[in-house]
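Before the break, one more example. Copy the sequence into your notebook; we will annotate it together after we see the structure.
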Amino acid sequence: HRGRRAILFHSLITDDTVPILYDCLRRSGHTDRTDLVLSTVGGAIPSTRQVAMLVREFTDELSILVPYRARSAGTLLCLSADELVLGPLAELGPIDSLMGSDGAPATDTPGTISAEDIRAFRAMAEDWFGIERPEDRLQVLALLAARIFPTSLSSFYRFDKLIREVAAELLSFQLPGEHRQAERNAVVDRLVSGYHSHDAVISRRDARTLGLRAVDASPAEEELLWSLWQAVHSPAHGDSDSKEQVIGVLAGADFAARHVVHRSFDAAPDGTRPDRSPVAVHAGWEVSG
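Here is what the structure looks like once it is written out:
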C-alpha cells in the first residue's frame, strides 16, 4: 500500500530478537525506505538500541507505524524513525528506566521500581512533610539507603544516564542537526521525567505536542494496521491453557518467525484432562519462512 518494504515487529525487545530481525532484513537487503509496524510493551535498553541501529543499517528512511501500543522501550525505538505513523489507538509512553528485584521481592516491596520513583522520594518529603533543612534531607537519604542497597541506588543513577544518552542518540535521526540539540534534550527530559507514572499514555496528539514527527494514519493505513494487530492477537495464537502459545511475531514479505512458548502439563487425577499448571516450559524463536 505504501510502496516500500514492510516489517511486522510484535514482540518484547530483547537480545534474542536481534538476530531474528537480522535474518529478516538480510533477505531483502538494503532498501531506500522501510516501514516497521511496531507492537510492543517494552524491553531492554541495550537491545532497543541494537534494533534501531540494525534497521538503520538496512534503510535510508525509516517509518515506524503503531497500531496500538509501543510503550517504554517501544517508545525509545520510535525515536529512531524519520517519521511516526500513528493510528487512533496508538500509545507511546514514558521511557524512565525500571529495575526489577532479584528473586521474589519482600511482601512490602514492589517487584519493579522506576528511577523516577527514587528521584521523587525527596520531592515527596519536601512537598508533603515540609522537609527542607539540610540535616533533615540527609536523614531522608539515610532512610532511603536503609531500604535500597546503596549500589542499587547508583545502578538507578547509571540506568538513568544510559537511557538519556540512548534516547538523545536515537532522536538525532528524527530531529537531526547540532542546532536542534536543545530541542532533543527537552524531548528526552520530558519522556524520562516529565510524567507522573510509567503507565502514562502519550497519544498521537501528545506526541506531536512533544515535538516528535508524528502523523495520523490514513483511513486505508488505519484499516491495514488494525487488521495486523488483530491477527497477531488472535486466539489462534494460543491462550494460558494451550500447550503452545505465540508471544511474538516478526515477519517480512519473504520471512516469518514466531516466538513460541511450549508447555507440558500434569495429568489430572482422573487422567482425563491436563492440569492447568505447567510443569515444564520452553520458549524460543521458530523461523518458518
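The chain is about 40% helix and 25% strand. The two ends are 22 Å apart (CA to CA). Try to locate both features in your own notes.
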